[in-house]
Specification:
Elements (H helix, E strand, L loop, with lengths): L10 H9 L9 E5 L5 E10 L7 E7 L3 E17 L5 E3 L2 E6 L6 H5 L9 E9 L4 E6 L7 E3 H5 L5 E6 L10
Antiparallel strand pairs: 1-2, 1-4, 2-3, 3-4, 4-5, 6-7, 6-10, 7-8, 8-9
């Protein structure tokens, strides 16, 4: 009997690696710049203009000291999670995901192949009552409302495909 000496990472080990990173969580934000309409990334500031008593502005500050006034409806927070390709997952991103993953034991038990995997597209949002980042699937009979982390536990299940601002055509109604 041959013994497979290659160590494979279990789901529990992957979860621990993701959540117990030695690096502190990156607290980042992004939004569209009012000036250029490009995405800007950094730290959020709600700032009072010193010359006008009642006027405020919303800004993203890029390190070390570049201020961008932002269009507030496009404001997004970084989730601290990354997709299968290492891309950061942001609030209001559209992700492509599946309940199963290639090579899944569940597919085999059902007599299905990797070609039978159904993929969904959904928006990432913060679910207050769960206290976690969730995904809401579009184009299904039921609106899936699951933790994004649920799909990140196994390989090749989550991919950022756009966001609700730049890619509204990806949202199936």
């Amino acid at each position: 009997m041959e013994v497979d000496m290659e160590m494979k990472e279990t789901t529990e080990e992957r979860e621990m690696r993701i959540y117990r990173s030695k690096e502190p969580k990156e607290i980042l934000f992004r939004a569209k710049s009012i000036e250029t309409n490009d995405w800007v990334y950094g730290y959020y500031v709600n700032y009072c203009y010193p010359t006008e008593t009642n006027k405020t502005g919303h800004f993203i500050i890029e390190y070390p000291n570049k201020w961008h006034e932002i269009y507030l409806p496009t404001f997004c927070e970084y989730t601290g999670l990354q997709d299968k390709d290492g891309n950061k997952i942001w609030q209001h991103d559209l992700i492509r995901y599946s309940y199963d993953y290639p090579g899944s034991i569940w597919l085999k038990q059902k007599g299905l192949t990797d070609d039978d995997i159904k993929y969904y597209v959904g928006e990432v949002f913060y679910q207050v009552w769960r206290g976690s980042w969730s995904v809401c699937a579009f184009g299904t009979n039921r609106m899936a409302n699951q933790d994004v982390f649920t799909y990140l536990r196994n390989p090749n299940r989550v991919e950022v495909v756009g966001n609700i601002f730049d890619n509204p055509e990806l949202i199936e109604k």
